[in-house]
């Protein structure tokens, strides 16, 4: 439930990105972070949660919302899923005002997507909430895959009653990502229409910056260490190739999150 501070005339709303491991949740949030004007957002932060990482930031709409002149700040969260224990979605979903479910369009990941959907249903039921009573955007990611499952097939196995809420996205390029966020933002504002926020129209155009050309990735210094201010993180599941090769998807990220590069590391496994 959104927190209203009448003294500061500020409303804080929570949006959680959920979905299976490797579906593109963190990639989508990093893209949104890079697109939001720096003066409108906080820093992108991470926090360890056992075997997993919490990834989050918040942004404020630059103009007052509604006749009360309240500022609304949206807090975006997701979990970068690690190995081991199940991710604590139930804890993260407490107090959520809107959801984005990232489905993986890869055929071999449909089972994981369905399982993650079941986890979401179970977590929401703990708070007495259904998927039809909270703003929810279903984003079918990785539409650039040659064998991507049709969106209707994914929805039929996950949220058949919410077919109109599903949309194709490609988080790596950002295609559809902001539109998906916009749907949730508008729905949250509609729900807040009974309180101080009114029903003002909010668009991402006033929040975002123009596309920036990615510069070359800085070379790693001698000794194989990553250049200062940069970190390397997993960008998905490793894939076993022929001839004993293991392909590991990685991501190079700078401290501010403003510059990223996706690449794959090929490793030869010796018997």
CATH topology assignment of the largest domain? Rossmann fold
CATH class of the largest domain: Alpha Beta
Helix fraction, binned, reads: 10-25%
Largest sheet: 8 strands, mixed
Total count of helical runs of at least 4 residues: 5
Our measurement of the CA-to-CA distance between the termini, rounded to an integer number of angstroms, reads: 55 Å
Report the count of strand segments. Answer: 12
Percent in strands: 25-35%
Provide the succession of SSEs: EEHEEEHEHEHEHEEEE
Would you write up a description of this structure?
Helices cover about 20% and strands about 30% of the residues. It contains 5 helices and 12 strands. The chain has about 270 residues and is an alpha/beta fold. The chain folds into 2 domains: about 5-205, 3-Layer(aba) Sandwich (Rossmann fold); about 215-270, no CATH class. The longest helix has 17 residues, at about 110-125.
Topology, pairings included?
Elements: E1 3-5, E2 10-18, H1 25-35, E3 45-49, E4 52-60, E5 71-80, H2 89-92, E6 98-104, H3 110-126, E7 136-141, H4 151-158, E8 166-168, H5 177-191, E9 230-234, E10 239-240, E11 245-254, E12 260-268
Parallel strand pairs: 2-5, 2-6, 6-7, 7-8
Antiparallel strand pairs: 1-2, 3-4, 4-5, 9-11, 10-11, 11-12
Brief summary of the model shown:
This protein is of the alpha/beta class. The chain is 20% helix and 29% strand.
Descriptive tags:
271 residues, alpha/beta, Rossmann fold, 2 domains, four-stranded antiparallel β-sheet, 29% strand
């Amino acid at each position: 439930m959104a927190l209203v501070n009448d003294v500061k005339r500020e409303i804080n709303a929570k949006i959680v990105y959920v979905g299976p491991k490797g579906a593109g949740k963190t990639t989508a949030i990093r893209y949104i972070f890079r697109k939001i004007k720096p003066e409108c957002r906080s820093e992108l932060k991470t926090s360890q949660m056992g075997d997993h990482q919490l990834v989050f930031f918040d942004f404020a709409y630059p103009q007052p919302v509604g006749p009360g002149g309240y500022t609304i700040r949206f807090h975006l969260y997701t979990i970068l899923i690690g190995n081991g224990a199940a991710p604590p979605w139930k804890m993260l979903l407490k107090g959520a005002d809107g959801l984005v479910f990232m489905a993986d369009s890869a055929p071999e990941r449909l089972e994981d997507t369905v399982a993650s959907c079941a986890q979401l249903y179970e977590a929401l039921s703990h708070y007495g909430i259904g998927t039809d009573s909270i703003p929810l955007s279903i984003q079918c990611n990785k539409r650039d895959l040659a064998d991507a499952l049709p969106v209707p097939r994914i929805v039929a196995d996950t949220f058949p009653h919410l077919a109109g809420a599903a949309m194709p996205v490609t988080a790596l390029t950002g295609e559809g990502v902001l539109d998906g966020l916009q749907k949730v933002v508008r729905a949250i504002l509609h729900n807040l229409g009974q309180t101080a926020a009114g029903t003002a129209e909010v668009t991402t155009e006033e929040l975002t910056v123009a596309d920036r050309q990615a510069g070359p990735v800085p070379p790693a210094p001698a000794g194989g260490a990553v250049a200062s201010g940069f970190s390397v993180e997993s960008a998905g599941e490793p894939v076993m190739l022929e001839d004993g090769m293991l392909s590991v998807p990685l991501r190079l990220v700078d401290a501010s999150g403003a510059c990223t590069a996706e690449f794959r590391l090929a490793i030869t496994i010796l018997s």
